[in-house]
Every structure is written in C-alpha cells, then in structure tokens.
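Support case: coproporphyrinogen I complex. Customer-provided input:
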Amino acid sequence: MIFVDACLKKQTPYTPIWMMRQAGRYLPEYRATRAQAGDFMSLCRNAELACEVTLQPIDILGVDAAILFSDILVIPAEMGMDLEFVKGKGPVFHDPLRNEADLKRLADDSDEKLSYVYDAIKLIRKDLAADKALIGFAGSPWTLATYMIEGGGSKTYEISKKMLYSNPSLLHAILRKNTDAIIKYLLKQIDAGVNAVQVFDSWGGALEESAFFEFSWSYMKEISAAIKAQHPEIPVILFSKGISGYLDKIDGTFDVFGVDWGTPIEKAKAAVFDRYAIQGNMEPTRLYSQEKIKEGVEHIVKVMGKEPGHIFNLGHGMLPDLPVENAKYLVDLVHELTRR
Ligand code: 1CP
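Agent response - structure generated as follows:
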C-alpha cells in the first residue's frame, strides 16, 4: 500500500494523499446516506452505512487511503456520557465532567461497547481495494477531555484549563481514563483490520508549552508506544494542532508527524523529518480556488521533494461547503506533480 509505505519512509511511485474529514457534508452522497440514517450517531452506529460513507471519497476523489467513518466522541458516549449532536451547534454533553464523582460514573468497557466500529472496519476492509489503506483513529486524551469537561466545543477551554491549574490531579485522572480506553480501542481497530491509526489532538494548541507536554503530548506518546510495542508494522500518526512553537521538543515512538496548516512546512521538515515521516499541510480553505490549490501544492511539493516519507494532506479538516471538483483537482494534481 502506497500510503503505508510512505508512512514507513519507503519509496513510493508518487506521494499519497488523503484529506482529514474527507467523508462529510460537502459530498451530496454523504448527505443522502446521513439522511437515511436519521441522525449522526445512528450513522456512526450503523456498520453498513458507516462503511458506505467511508468508501465514498475513495470512489469520488481517488484518494490513497480511507479513514474510518466515526467520531472521536464515541468513546465518551460509550463511557456513558449523554452526547447529542445539536444542529447548527455541534456536539453537546448534557452531563459534563466536573468532579471525582462524575469521573467515577464512567464505564471502563467502552472498547467493548464500540463493537459497531469493529464491524464497520471488517466490512470496509472487505470492500476497499487492496492497494488502498484504511486508517483507524481516536481523539487524544486531552482533546476528548475538553469536550467531556466543557460539555461541548469551546473557544477558550476555560473550565478544562481552570481544572488544569487548580485541580491537576483530577485532570490527570480523566486523561488516564481516556488513555487506557483509547489504547484498548485502537488495538481492537487494528485487530479488526485497519492499516494505520491516527490520534487527533485538535486542541493541543490551547495549552502553553509546559502544559502541552505534561497534559497532552505525554499521553499521546504513551498511546503510540503501546501500539508500536504490539504492532510495529502499523504506522501511527500523531496530529496536534497549533503547536508550531514546540516542534524542537517533539519526541516519542511513532511514525508520522501530522503538520497543521499554521506551521510552515519547511519548519516542520527541519525539526522532525530526520526522525518521522511528515503528513500535511495545505491550508484547507485553499480548496475554494483551483489557482490557490495549485500554488499551495507546488510550494509543499517543492519543500518535501520526492523523497520517501511525505503524505499529502490538508492542515486540518475539510469544510462542509467546498466544491467536490476542487478536491478531485487537488488529488490529481498531487499525483501528477509527485510522480517519480
Ligand atoms: O453530518 C454532520 O453534520 C456531522 C458532522 C461530523 C462529521 C462528518 C461530525 C460531528 N463528525 C464527523 C466525522 C468525523 N469526525 C470523522 C470522519 C472521518 C473523516 O475524516 O472523513 C473524523 C476523523 C472526525 C474527528 C473529529 N470529531 C475531530 C478531530 C478532527 C478535527 O477536525 O479536528 C473532532 C474535534 C471532532 C468533534 C466533532 N464531531 C463533529 C463535529 C462538528 C465536531 C467538531 C466540533 C468542534 O469544532 O468543536
């Protein structure tokens, strides 16, 4: 698989590409399947429909890897938290975690309750072409904790960060619980058939340097080390958004460093490419203009060259209203410009 080879820094015929949030509302086919499922969590819990939307961007865009269709918040939901996706607002937990008693109520067997995810993986792996990789994923312990503590998305993360500075042992206990659940969950995704895993630390950048390494990166490294110890052949991708100031301190046992769009790719290359493959990092809103896509791709390809170890991606997720033909244009352009 070209994608897996690139993650392991092996030679490939061209630079593989996939896009974060490549299954989603910008695809009319996704909107139709989601309408059929009723609501978002029902789509996640229906293995056949989750398989269908996972495969849509492979057929439509020609990307080199599929990412399992699910959400990072299925873990807290299966720990017993009351999750609702509110139209126009996003995810809401009606019972946020605020104290030790709230934490004690959470179940330890979320990895078993997530069997619908493993069922979806088995179906997808059966239907996906043999040369295309299937990426499994989870949220990072910190990013999950922000939703669990705040009760939803946040701009300031004030409740989580207040806990970080006033009751760090409670935050560490929440992160411990999330880390243990994530390791078990990702190992079961691998047993079900995924070819690589990515940990999404979307809100790592909410933390100052010392807090980032203590409350987010240390747990991400623990997850990757646990996976690599059991499955050295499975690439692990770590993606923390908003941490360009701390690149020189990135360490740990993993394969691919995911670069966000706010980080100049040449800086990421200089800081980590001697040790890790690099994934990224075109600014996602360039997808609104083919001219700007071309400019973005040419720059990234010039910096990363045709050496092994680059996976093309966006520097964060796709947006719901972007033109499908531009996404297709991006995939074709990356393949064309990087052919060895
Ligand atoms: O149909 C809809 O209206 C729901 C929109 C949607 C979708 C398509 C949500 C709700 N989740 C998803 C799928 C999803 N989420 C995937 C599927 C695979 C793919 O990439 O194609 C993945 C990998 C995620 C991961 C995810 N969920 C992250 C990490 C990645 C990132 O973008 O930073 C985060 C932070 C979430 C939480 C979440 N779930 C949904 C929304 C709208 C959000 C973000 C809310 C916020 O901004 O706080």
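The domain at 2-338 is CATH 3.20.20.210 (TIM Barrel).

Case will auto-close in a few days if no follow-up is received.
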